Amino acid sequence: MTTLSHIPVTELKGVGAALAEKLARVGLETLQDILFHLPLRYQDRTRCVPIGALRPGQDAVVEGVVAGADVLMGRRRSLLVRLSDGTGTLSLRFYHFSTAQKDALKRGTHLRCYGEARPGASGLEIYHPEYRALTDNEPAALEQTLTPIYPSTEGLTQQRLRQLSEQALARLGPHSLPDWLPAAIAREYQLSPLDQALRYLHRPPPDADQEELAEGRHWAQHRLAFEELLTHQLSMQRLRESLRAQHAPPLPKSQQLTRQFLANLGFPPTGAQQRVGAEIAYDLSQSEPMLRLLQGDVGAGKTVVAALAALQALESGYQVALMAPTEILAEQHFISFQRWLAPLGIEVAWLAGKLKGKARTSALAQIAGGTPMVVGTHALFQEEVQFAKLALVIIDEQHRFGVQQRLALRKKGVEGRLCPHQLIMTATPIPRTLAMSAYADLDTSILDELPPGRTPVNTLLIADSRRIEVIERVRSACHEGRQAYWVCTLIEESEELTCQAAESAYEDLSAALGGLHVGLIHGRMKAAEKAAVMAQFKQGQLQLLVATTVIEVGVDVPNASLMIIENPERLGLSQLHQLRGRVGRGSAASHCLLLYHPPLSQLGRQRLGIMRETNDGFIIAEKDLELRGPGEMLGTRQTGLLQFKVADLLRDADLLPAVRDAAQHLLADWPQHVSPLLERWLRHGQQYGQV
Ligand code: ADP
Ligand code: MG
């Protein structure tokens, strides 16, 4: 028997070449595709609502007798038809109508219509309802099921989509559409058979719980969400396997360089740094490429861990690339690594997108020629960057890099043959549930200990009407020898406007704080200017640094103990946490003042309240996820990583542990089910599982 995944839509009645092409454009090529094209919502045309019981905003079928039809001249000519059913009267309003239509709607006509009841000039009205006249001898059958409304595109009507799903449903059965969830798994997690779930969602019975359906909590949706998440999990495992199947240069543990590095470092590594360092050192000694995610809160000391990893590759004579998402952060790393590696006689090269002309050519030549340590921005991913012997790639602040970009790195290994080891570091702690699903291809290490001597940052919410007081606080902190940041947040997604705001804050604050050394840094400045300002701030020549969120990541000035963030309500919690992590790096008590603009929305108050209550990045990340949703937090809208059809990572987070177990089970006992599942769910768009 041919399964529905192999039957093209052209086999359906009414589907010719032109329609097939339209359907293909939205990814509908087979009957299986049609069945997995699920309704967005439903209409209830299974019952007539008495006019007297209609509520504003309700979509409903009503029946009644036309009590009168008038053409109103007002601002726009309209036809107003009054309909009564003994329980009340309703008006049907048409702005576009023909004479024939008007004549057909004469007094005494028995009508059935469907539409949304809205409050209008004459009481409840339905604008342009669907309607038809009923005759006494015509049986007035209502729909037997809720009416599905499908995601559509131009030229594809709902009626057409319904006809197609009707035909596909007629051919749906346990044999025509194999259920790739083995019975044992379905039983264990109480999942209903696939064909039942699909049938239900395309044609829910009149008594279906519409609220559950709307919220995606219905058992039929649950069944499909489980399968979809399972498939995602399997695709990540495949990705991981395909990476693991490659060879990486095994790097023996470093002896010499690590000893020298630690001797010069000035502090002993924390217990967590040692533990994580050992995990990484072991991975690197293997001939399978390392794929490790290092999570650690802001200020946990990830850079030292990165350096330890780098030394292992460097000591074996290989190259290391360290990548950061912004130029400022990359520069900071460049400076740190130069400082650490120069005494060991190791050269460090620099590459960023802004590097042009001769400087660029010479950087590319250095990298191709084998300069051991290379630091830069994602410019390092570019095609023309050729490494001589790349054995380790370190990526800082993972949440901005996508899976695709990670994949691109494989090609940069030794002679395009050996795959480099990868260490991915993130300061945005990813909630466990999400990490399980989104980063199932990575092993995880957690740096769960801050270096000693840190004092937690004290966070306060202050209305911007108290700006003058706040400025005085900056003055006194600076007079005590401390340094401060003044951060201007993003305005209407415009970098230009944001930089202007920072410039004017800089002017105001310079004027208000005469005698203090105030600096300015923002994204529109040249790299050299930014570097110069940062260097001055680091050396204490500047006391106050006015900045945009360019300083979000990585900037490290332990003497800075005060941060003011203007309009913090514009930022995500994790971003605020990153910013706040710039202070509290020394031993002095640190403060972060969130200078908000009242009135705050209830959500705004809730969110900033979380910032005041906790310094724990994991808790903040969890809350941020709850309040904003996962796609936004991971910045995955661009990468398409977490776009699901049925599942919703936040809503279905409690399924993830079961999904993970089920994936293991399936891989072990039913490996032949994996490919059909991937093909069913991921064929269009998301190719990351098919490497
Ligand atoms: P992050 O994890 O946010 O990237 P960094 O690597 O920038 O943190 O480290 C933050 C600061 O802590 C730096 O000034 C670094 O020198 C310092 N640091 C790192 N490890 C230790 C340690 N074991 N003891 C003391 N200070 C440390
Ligand atoms: Mg860092």
Written account of the structure:
- It is a single chain.
- The protein is α/β, with parallel strands linked by helices and 691 residues long.
- Among the domains are: 65-133; 256-447, Rossmann fold; 457-614, P-loop containing nucleotide triphosphate hydrolases (Rossmann fold), CATH 3.40.50.
- 38% of the residues lie in helices and 18% in strands.
- The protein contains 24 helices and 21 strands.
- The strands form four sheets. A seven-stranded parallel beta sheet has the order 11-12-10-13-14-9-15, sandwiched between helices.
- Helix 14 links the parallel strand 13 and strand 14 (421-426).
- Helix 6 (194-202) packs across helix 8 (219-244), helix 9 packs antiparallel against helix 11 and helix 10 (271-284) packs parallel to helix 11.
- Residues 631-641 and 685-691 have low confidence and may be disordered.
- The structure holds adenosine-5'-diphosphate (ADP) and magnesium ion.
- Magnesium ion (MG) binds at residues 302-303, 396, 427, 554.
